[in-house]
Task: inverse folding
């Protein structure tokens, strides 16, 4: 489903959780939503899922306001830290609820996933370990087969084999039936390759929205004699700098074409790539992300 | 599987090129689909597709409608030519630079290369 967010603001009392955020997410892609703690990820996702009303601005799902719009809401599956149903409900009861709520619910797939993640069906949801609780959330998210599936940090407490099983299932479902998926996560290195596009928010604002591979190509580290590094990075966005004696290393963000490669070679500088996680850390470190404008290259 | 530090589609394309160059993938042989690649390497299918598109553009692969993608008949020859062009820049140049730093006379380097080349 197509998501359009226009000048969205969400306030809790005096706190502004989302601050005039505009973002377009075309249908049929897997998006990664990245942000530090309290960046506003969960708030943003709850507004998209129509759990919460904006204080100002607008969210449109396939062109319509999702709030109190049952025709749209039943097609959005949001899995957060609180699952549907009451805490003392059993896993089985919660699954029954999902089956009733979700028009595309796939019961045999849900059963297969419950076995895969070894989630006990008769236990109360409140008595599940954090890992099993997350696994149940993943089952609810994937088996809903919803055209818009939102998974908000649905990996907490899961061990690595279970997380990878989750990624494989998510991909298989997506390949079989391309739909819109938003994943929020802190495990950037681990899931980065699943995202077609990445959205980074900080302090309730959009820092960046870009194709994952474009982003990967856009960060670079430049290392060499300090003076030459300074000359090279002139005019580029410098995210971080480090010095070791006469040697300097700068992390830059921007398009570095072949002519920059030549320039670096001429100055005897070493150009190296920067991983997604490192880029994220630099882009959301205090002082840098408080930009008034999203980073260069951000999609409108 | 992939280093996180360069575009994954590029790494996919490079991997397939390497397979063609070394003969793991033969000419006119079908390559795995983008979805199979995506599932195998646990990457977004759009990313895999982008790597394949690059190879189509470069003429390394060709498409048979409704069937899939295949290795072009002249792919190996073309890749070899490309690599030969880059060989002196990317392989020989660093050797010469390193030899200079270490004060190894070029004549010694050449003699060594000729000895290696003379081996069966």
Result:
């Amino acid at each position: 489903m197509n998501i359009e967010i226009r000048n969205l603001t969400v306030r809790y009392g005096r706190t502004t959780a989302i601050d005039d955020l505009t973002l377009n997410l075309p249908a049929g892609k897997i998006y990664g939503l990245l942000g530090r703690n309290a960046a506003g990820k969960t708030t943003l996702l709850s507004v998209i899922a129509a759990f919460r009303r904006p204080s100002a601005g607008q969210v449109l799902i396939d062109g319509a306001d999702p709030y109190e719009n049952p025709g749209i809401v039943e097609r959005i599956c949001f899995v957060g830290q609180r699952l549907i149903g009451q805490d003392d409900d059993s896993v089985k009861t919660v699954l029954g609820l999902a089956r009733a709520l979700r028009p595309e619910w796939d019961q045999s797939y849900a059963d297969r996933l419950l076995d895969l993640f070894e989630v006990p069906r008769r236990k109360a949801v409140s008595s599940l370990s954090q890992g099993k609780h997350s696994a149940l959330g993943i089952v609810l998210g994937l088996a809903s087969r919803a055209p818009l599936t939102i998974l908000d940090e649905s990996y907490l407490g899961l061990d690595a084999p279970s997380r990878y099983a989750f990624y494989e299932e998510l991909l298989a479902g997506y390949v079989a039936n391309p739909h819109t998926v938003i994943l929020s996560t802190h495990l950037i290195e681990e899931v980065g390759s699943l995202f077609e596009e990445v959205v980074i928010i900080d302090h309730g604002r959009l820092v960046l929205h870009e194709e994952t591979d474009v982003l990967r190509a856009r960060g670079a580290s430049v290392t060499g004699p300090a003076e030459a590094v300074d000359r090279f990075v002139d005019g580029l966005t410098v995210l971080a700098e480090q010095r070791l004696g006469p040697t300097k290393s700068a992390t830059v963000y921007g398009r570095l074409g072949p002519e920059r490669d030549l320039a670096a070679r001429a100055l005897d500088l070493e150009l190296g790539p920067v991983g997604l996680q490192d880029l994220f850390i630099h882009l959301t470190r205090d002082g840098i992300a408080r930009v008034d404008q999203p980073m260069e290259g951000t999609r409108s | 599987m992939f280093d996180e530090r360069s575009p994954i589609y590029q790494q996919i394309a490079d991997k397939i090129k390497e397979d063609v160059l070394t003969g793991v993938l033969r000419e006119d042989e079908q390559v795995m689909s983008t979805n199979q690649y995506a599932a195998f390497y646990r990457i977004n299918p759009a990313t895999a597709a982008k790597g394949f598109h690059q190879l189509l553009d470069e003429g390394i692969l060709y498409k048979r409608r409704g069937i899939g993608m295949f290795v072009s008949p002249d792919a190996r020859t073309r890749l070899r030519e490309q690599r030969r062009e880059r060989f002196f820049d990317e392989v020989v140049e660093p050797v010469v630079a390193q030899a200079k730093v270490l004060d190894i006379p070029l004549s010694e380097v050449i003699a060594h290369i000729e000895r290696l080349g003379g081996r069966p």
In short: The two ends of chain A are 18 Å apart (CA to CA).
